[in-house]
Amino acid sequence: MGSITTEHKSSFPKKPVPSGAWDTHHHIFEPDRFPFAEGRHFTPARASLEDLQKFEKSIGVDHVYLDTVSNELLDEYHAAGVRSVRLDFFRHKAMDNVQIQAELMEATAQRLAKWGKPGWSIQIQQPHLEFWPRLRDVVDRSPVPVVVDHCALIAGSSYRVNDYVTNIQDGSYLAEGERIDLAALCETLRNGNLWMKISAPYRCSNLAPGYDDLRWLVRRFVDANPRRVVWGSDWPHTQRHKDRVGKSSSSEEAFLQIDDKAWIESLSKWMSEDEWQLLWVENPATLYDYHE
């Protein structure tokens, strides 16, 4: 079985991440210790905890959030520092069904609320911008915060427009209805119970390594609520869903080669010093109830 390379083809960022920085989204694949589930939709190469630690050290991150279920098991997780439940809409056949998504979110939130431990959240990933007018009410009513992966999977212009258009920097390539849906998402973020992960830019843009067509989107989120954005690497960078079409789910797939440090350098140019500190240190500590 293959494994991830420990060498990173990355340029050192001129602006380092702050001391105490967090990576809020990553994966560990050790099938010899934790066998893969039957019926999975892809088979990743091996990426160990030791590999993750080397990666985080290479970019200057101090904290990683391990997103790993009776209440007793939740108690054990809580004591160990876990602070979120991830809803797998793919597994529940809900990726394209807003009603099932809403029901799953409401049921999970109520369970966490009744369980009564502080600092927990629900993490989701779904690709439908048009679902947010419906999900806005679900999030606003939720007794626990909701965290959205990968900039809500909103595509930059290079991901949506032919010939990798690079001169559309304001989201004007979105249809009118999509812009209304984005406004609903940003309003939810502004209301304070929704958190956005600035993560996995290669799932929204083809303009590696700097992903310049995402600048406007990152700024929309930060401007909506600078205290509700966190950073995540999505290490070790599994392949994009669209690239798996027609491939066997049981065949081991290689990880993407991503220049994380170039992405961090690009991102740093889009944010003020105060916003940078919030993104990396203060916001994740608040979200995950971290106290030194």
Topology diagram in text:
Blueprint lengths: L21 E2 L19 E2 L4 H11 L3 E2 L6 H10 L3 E3 L11 H18 L5 E4 L7 H10 L4 E3 L8 H4 L15 H16 L2 E6 L15 H10 L4 E4 L19 E2 L6 H9 L4 H15 L5
Parallel strand pairs: 1-3, 2-9, 4-5, 5-6, 6-7, 7-8
Helix pairs in contact: 3-4, 4-6
GO molecular function: hydrolase activity
Give the structure's gist in a few sentences.
The protein has 292 residues and is an alpha/beta fold.
3D architecture notes:
Residues 1-20 are annotated as: Disordered. GO terms for molecular function: hydrolase activity. Pfam families: Amidohydro_2. Residues 67-243 form the Amidohydrolase-related domain. Residues 1-10 have a biased composition (Basic and acidic residues). It contains nine helices and nine strands. Mean pLDDT is 86; it is low at 1-12. Helix 4 (132-141) links the parallel strand 5 (121-124) and strand 6 (146-148). The chain has 292 residues and is an alpha/beta fold. It has a single domain, classed as TIM Barrel (Alpha-Beta Barrel). The radius of gyration is 18 Å and the shape is globular. It starts with 21 loop residues before the first strand and ends in a 5-residue tail after the last helix. The chain is 35% helix and 10% strand. Helix 3 (98-115) runs parallel beside helix 4 (132-141) and helix 4 (132-141) runs parallel beside helix 6. Strands 4-5-6-7-8 form a five-stranded parallel sheet. The chain has a two-stranded parallel sheet with strand order 1-3. The protein has a two-stranded parallel sheet with strand order 2-9.
